[in-house]
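Duplicate of earlier report; THO complex subunit 7A input re-posted below.
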Amino acid sequence: MLVKGRKVAGRGEEMAAHYAFGPLEDDTIIKHRLLTRTTTTRGEPPLKKIQKKFISFALEIDRDADNYGTCEKMYKAFLQEMATFELPLLKSKAVIDANLREKENFNELQGELHRQISQTQADIEDLKKHLEQSKIERQHKEECEAIRRLISMQPPRSDTQKDITELKKEIAALEAENTAGSRTLELRKKQFSLLLHVVDELQNTIEDEQKSLAEELRIAMEEQKISLEDASGGTEAMAVD
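Output:
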């Protein structure tokens, strides 16, 4: 049993509390007192009382004197002491049985609590998964809503189709104009090539005519020269004569 520590004042300081027994010795003493039904440090232990009653009863029986009444009296006192000692034991047994039942109930309750905790943890994990799935679905819904708003901001399909038709017409007109321009350009290329060919032919013809004219001029000059030479020769001949 624990003994309260004394406080000793000295020079304004307190000494630490100390105990007569340690924890292990204290447990041993408590177990011994429970077994011997000695709950206090005062008075005689019950087992010693029973032992004394039994020894007194046995010694009285061993006597040869006519003490039947005394023996019966001691026997009844011994039985009364035994009953007095047995009653706390029965109470202790009832307490132990109740504690065992409480322990079993506690173990069952603890097992049930563990099962409930495990089930709760599993439910929490499932709820986490459902929460993540819900977040994903909500994000998809928000994205769909944003797309729907963008679509609603666009003009009606009929107007868009009308614009597409107009654009197709403009594209067809531009393609036709491009085709006509390409044909005109090709025609101009052919005409320009023909013009270049004609100019080239005309230039060649002019060069040939210039060459022919120069040749004719040269021949005419040579003929004139020959004529002049012939005329000079005739004059000289006539002068010699």
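Residues 1-18 have pLDDT under 50 and may be disordered.

Merging into the original ticket.
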